[in-house]
Each structure stands twice: as structure tokens, then as C-alpha cells.
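User: Structure please.
Assistant: Input sequence and predicted structure:
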Amino acid sequence: MELTLTTPALLFPAISLLLLAYTNRFLALAALMRELYARYKTAPDPKIKGQLANLRYRIVIIRNMQVFGVASFFGCVLCMFLLFAGQSLAGTWTFGGSLILLLISLGLSLREIQVSIDALSLQIQDLDETV
């Protein structure tokens, strides 16, 4: 397979949209953390503290998702530069590396979704116990 400049360029919109989605997730969680923190300060509750711990863990996952996504984007740009400079073997390896980084980012995204679903299940279970 011959790698041309257009192949890594195809990932630009996908990675950009992923990074935007990751940023939106981060901002939503940060706002929720601020709200829960304020509620905890006014009325300390161990359940809120547990939720804050879960959100902290999710924020760390999202940060890592963003790091690997940006690294993948950087790898695509570097790949294009190497291909432009006539270094097709280095460009091919760089592109492969950027795909692996993107896979790691997507895997972390899946993990964050699982943690989110677990937190929601615990919240609903708590609701079921009070009814």
C-alpha cells in the first residue's frame, strides 16, 4: 500500500471532532464537579464525596483521552510533513503510530463511558432504595 498525503489528511476532521467531543465532556464534568463541590461545602454528604471521587477519575481519563488524541493529531501532521519531504518509510511508520495513539484514545473513551454508566447505575440504585 502506498501512503500519500491525502491518507493522513482524511483523519483531520475525525480527530478534530473527537477532540471537540472530549472537550465538551470535560467541560460538562467540570461544571458538575463545581456544582457538587459547592453543595458538599454547604451540606457535607458522603454520597456527594463519592460522586466527586468518581468525577475526578473520569476527568483523569478524559485528560488522557485528549493527550492521546492530540498526540495522534500531531503524528498525522508529522506524517504529512515526512511524506512531503519524501521520507515515505518514516511517514508510514509515523502514520501507523498515530493510528495506535488514536486507538488508545478511543479505548479510553470507552472506559470513561463505562465508568459513567456505572455511576449512573449507582445513582439510580440509590433512588430505588429510597422508594
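The chain has a mean pLDDT of 90.
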